[in-house]
Write a structure and sequence with these properties.
By secondary structure, the protein is of the alpha/beta class. 32% of the residues lie in helices and 20% in strands. It has an eight-stranded parallel β-barrel with strand order 7-8-9-10-11-12-13-14, surrounded by seven helices. It has a four-stranded antiparallel beta sheet with strand order 2-3-1-4. A two-stranded antiparallel sheet has the order 5-6. The protein is globular, with a radius of gyration of 21 Å. The structure holds phosphoenolpyruvate and manganese (II) ion (MN). Phosphoenolpyruvate (PEP) binds next to loops.
């Protein structure tokens, strides 16, 4: 059962404490308080966990601080919308608000390699007013002989460089729970020069111990990438592992499915699932056109396939785009063939804005009766 409090109710007010006490007076019931800081207001939800099936909802409805009591019967207890009764308010992290209504682009290096490349990338983003990026320090590679990422050693200069260019969030994959601690330590040593969104890669979508580890800390948000060979339901359940650990700041990323039916793209583009994930869950949805397409093919109309699938994600309401760029893709140590070039950045950003505006125009028409 979830009790949604009226906006801006202080969670430590006497009435809320009485409510919690009453909830916990039922045998084998405990509570968790979750605060969701949205752009304009803060929502507090009290989760009643344990044997809640027999608890009546009416006594809780009577508290003046309660907006609504939602009985959770279906799947996706922590991330679900429960028949639209829960709002998808999203979250704010390091000054950036991310929700099912917002839109951000995270262009950056697939893997951190050299400091000059990192500087060039962040400087180009700063020039275009972009404050969100990607940079992998721990790379999960199909072959053990391939570059595995620079690891913890690059974090101090990476964070310093990000901070000096005004980058507020860097999406970075972790493949082991020790990486979370290394990132937290390096961030704090950098004086929190920037922020990090912990990426769970497609290969670790069902690494339940790793999911629990990123879920049990609430400092850093999580970008969960859909498992490439499992069902959507299995991927959403994996997100439940993160959320049920306590961390509700999760973005769900579509990145294509592994099947030869997608050939000649690297993965079969699954961006048609943007509205599905938004309907089933409260999570903002990201699309990754680089790992979906995996190449720099150009369509006969002159646009790269990466541009086309990005547009397909945005026109369906995607809230985030994570995309590979590299100043010298021929020298990149990971995924060079799919990287966009620095001189393609302005055009790419402009293209995303054109499509986002078209999406917003479509929304406005849905809202206005014809
Ligand atoms: C990545 O984003 O660098 C990556 C490895 O993606 P995925 O896990 O989707 O393959
Ligand atoms: Mn990659």
């Amino acid at each position: 059962m979830i009790i949604v409090l009226k906006a801006d109710t202080p969670p430590d007010s006497p009435e809320v404490l009485r409510l919690i006490q009453q909830a916990e007076s039922y045998p084998e019931v405990h509570t968790e308080v979750h605060q969701i800081r949205g752009a304009t207001r803060t929502l507090t939800e009290i989760y009643l966990l344990g044997s809640t099936g027999v608890i009546p909802t009416e006594p809780f409805d009577e508290f003046t601080c309660v907006e609504r009591v939602v009985r959770v019967t279906e799947k996706y207890r922590a991330i679900g919308r429960h028949d639209e009764s829960l709002e998808a308010v999203g979250f704010e992290y390091n000054g950036v608000h991310i929700s099912q209504d917002t839109f951000q682009v995270f262009p950056g290096l697939c893997a951190v390699d050299t400091r000059p490349n990192v500087e060039e990338m962040f400087a180009a983003l700063a020039e275009h007013g972009v404050v969100t990026s990607r940079a992998g320090a721990y790379k999960p590679r199909t072959s053990p002989y391939d570059f595995q990422g620079l690891g913890a050693e690059c974090l101090p200069w990476l964070f310093e460089s990000a901070g000096s260019h005004g980058i507020r969030i860097v999406a970075m994959e972790v493949t082991h729970e020790s990486h979370v601690e290394q990132i937290q330590k390096a961030l704090s040593q950098s004086g929190n020069a920037t922020g990090v969104m912990l990426q769970i890669g497609t290969r670790n979508a069902q690494n339940f111990e790793l999911l629990k580890a990123v879920g049990q800390q609430t400092e850093l948000p999580v970008l969960f990438k859909r498992g490439m060979g499992i069902t959507l339901e299995e991927s959403l359940n994996a997100c439940e592992y993160v959320a049920s650990g306590g961390n509700r700041r999760i973005v769900f990323c579509l990145r294509g499915m592994k099947t030869n039916l997608g050939d000649p793209h690297r993965n079969f583009v699954d961006f048609g699932h943007v509205p599905v994930v938004k309907r089933l869950t409260r999570l903002p949805v990201c699309v990754d056109p680089s790992h979906s397409v995996g190449r720099r093919s150009i369509a006969p109309d002159g646009l790269l396939d990466v541009f086309h699938v990005t547009a397909q994600g945005i026109i369906s309401g995607a809230n985030m785009v994570i995309v590979d760029f590299h100043p010298h893709p021929e020298e990149a140590l990971c995924d060079g063939p799919q990287a966009l070039l620095m001189d393609e950045l302005p055009r790419f950003l402009e293209d995303t804005q054109i499509v986002r505006r078209a999406y917003e125009e479509r929304l406005a028409r849905v809202a206005t009766p014809s």
